[in-house]
Design goal:
Elements lengths: L2 H5 L1 H19 L20 E3 L5 E3 L6 E3 L6 H18 L4 E4 L6 H4 L11 H10 L5 E3 L3 H6 L15 H15 L9 E9 L3 H5 L2 H4 L3 E8 L4 E10 L6 E4 L3 E3 L22 E7 L6 E6 L16 E6 L7 H7 L4 E5 L2 H4 L2 H10 L3
Helix pairs in contact: 2-3, 3-5, 3-12
Length: about 350
């Protein structure tokens, strides 16, 4: 009997996933996208300072930007690829699995003066893509977002991207999935003015609060949709689900006043819920998005693309996912985690647990 395997089951489970990913990569003959490191010469000479929690702060006033540093390991990248591979093997040819790691703002806005404070996200994505099984579709949005980095695709005062970044990512995913996609001309543009997000709390830097921005989001026109929620009750530490509501219809887009720091919750009102959107796009394509809060910005851009969209958070889900996929006729599964979550062992463990709980 292997005592170490009994004492450290999670370690052995992660090692097994990584080994499986390496095997899949070795056997794959499918070319994988290789992303090139993003560089921006306009960032040369821009000073940066490191705030609490390793938050990087650059600029001042309307050009101030605060964002998290990034770090990952080869093991964590392989584990994320391996769980996508496991889903592809579990659901077989009837369901297409996509892997779309979402970069953090540091990938595009870190000046050379702070380059040693954060790790390469391009390298992490390349390790993930290289380890994917042939059946998993790699979706490169790192390159796509780099082409639009001069636009407001990431928040300056919040750890999330802006909805515009989600739009460009959704467009790239729709292209990979072979489904229709509409331009922003088919959306109403709405703005929450004087938005200041989470970064003042994380960085403990008062200058961030003095640099508000617009939070701009987009509501689709000409498509009917119904949103149904199962809302989860969490424990006092807000980590574990202790209860779930009956399915209840509600609005997908919540409304926040100017100056509200909660504007990113515009989409579905947050994370601790299971969401199903049924649309008038009757094409038989039914999407399941596996996500963290970054993924909340994606579904609203896909109402023209899928008949049904199901949204499952990597922290909150109580059903058996194999049964859920079968019962709801899911045709497409998208892994849409930001690279920080994709590099966290708890995310992979949760996705493993969802298959057997």
């Amino acid at each position: 009997m292997n005592l170490s395997r009994l004492l450290f089951p999670r370690l052995f489970a992660t090692a097994a996933l990584c080994a499986a990913a390496l095997t899949a990569a070795a056997q794959s003959t499918t070319p994988r996208p290789v992303v090139e490191e993003y560089t921006d010469t306009t960032l040369v000479g821009i000073p940066a300072r490191k705030a609490q929690g390793g938050i990087i702060v650059t600029g001042r006033g309307a050009s101030l930007r605060a964002f998290s540093a990034f770090s990952s390991t080869q093991e964590s990248n392989l584990a994320y690829a391996a769980i996508a591979n496991k889903y592809a093997a579990t659901f077989g040819s009837g369901v297409t699995v996509y892997c779309m790691p979402i970069p953090l703002a540091a990938a595009y806005y870190t000046p050379p003066s702070a380059s040693t404070w954060t790790r390469s996200q391009a390298a992490a994505i390349n390790r993930i893509f290289a380890a994917l099984a042939p059946e998993v579709v790699a979706v490169d949005i790192y390159t796509t977002l780099g082409r639009h980095a001069a636009e407001p695709i990431y928040s300056r005062t919040d750890h999330h991207w802006q909805p515009l970044g989600g739009f460009y990512a959704a467009a790239r995913f729709a292209e990979a999935a072979g489904v229709p996609f509409r331009s922003l001309a088919d959306y109403d543009t709405l703005t929450v003015h004087r938005f200041v997000g989470t970064m003042p709390m994380f960085a403990k830097d008062p200058s961030i609060r003095r640099a508000p921005e617009d939070f701009v989001y987009y509501v689709p026109r000409g498509v009917d949709y119904t949103t149904t929620y199962i809302n989860y009750t969490l424990d006092s530490r807000r980590r574990n689900v202790v209860g779930a509501s009956t399915p209840t219809e509600g609005t997908f887009f919540k409304t926040y006043k100017d100056g509200s720091g909660a504007a990113y919750c515009t989409f579905m009102g947050g994370d601790s819920k299971l969401v199903h959107v049924h649309t008038s796009t009757a094409n038989g394509r039914r999407l399941l998005i596996l996500k963290d809060s970054f993924g909340n910005a994606l579904p609203g851009f896909l109402f023209y693309s899928f008949e049904d969209i199901h949204v499952v958070d990597c922290r909150y889900f109580t059903q058996n996912l194999v049964r859920y996929v079968k019962d709801n006729g899911i045709t497409d599964i998208l892994f849409a985690n930001n690279l920080s979550h994709a590099s966290t062992a708890a995310t992979v463990r949760a996705y493993e647990r969802y298959l057997v709980q």
